[in-house]
Amino acid sequence: MKEVRFRAWHAKEKRMYYRAYQRLFSVLLCDQDPLVDDGRGKPVKRAWYGDCFLLESTGLTDKNRNEIFEGDVVKINYKEKSFTGVVNAVPDTFGAGKIHPLRDLLQKNGISGYPENLDMEVVGNEFENPGLIKK
């Protein structure tokens, strides 16, 4: 079972936080801790749910070992195809079998199933780099 990890875009601050943890009434926002790279981050503030977009990790990494999250703009090369798109909501795989975390993006570009050996690179995200997305 994969660990469910989130990062957060704080809409009012227009800032991406490295990690986000859901609490009862708020979101705990964390920056990356350069002294301890344990993947959890260093807590820096709490925010209201309405101020944040929680972005779930897909559990995948790109060719540069960057973790891929919802909202990331990803360049994908697979066989003869090359395309760039935004990672949508991660499918709920509880009891659903083997569903690729990038299913919607792949299907939109004619790739079905669970393809192996995808060449992926995160080139930005839809919040900090809206110009990367072609309308």
H/E element sequence:
EEEEEEEEEHE
What is the global morphology?
A: globular
- Gyration radius over CA: 16 Å
Q: Roughly what fraction of the amino acids lie in strands? A: 35-45%
What structural class do the secondary elements suggest?
A: mainly beta
> Share of helix among residues?
under 10%
The helix count comes to 1
Tally the beta strands.
10
Poorly predicted residue ranges: none
What is the typical, i.e. mean, pLDDT?
90
The neighbouring-strand order within the major sheet is 2-1-6-7
Terminal-residue CA separation: 36 Å
Give the number of domains: 1
Note the main sheet: 4 strands, antiparallel
Task: Kindly summarize this structure in a few lines.
The protein is mostly beta strands and 135 residues long.
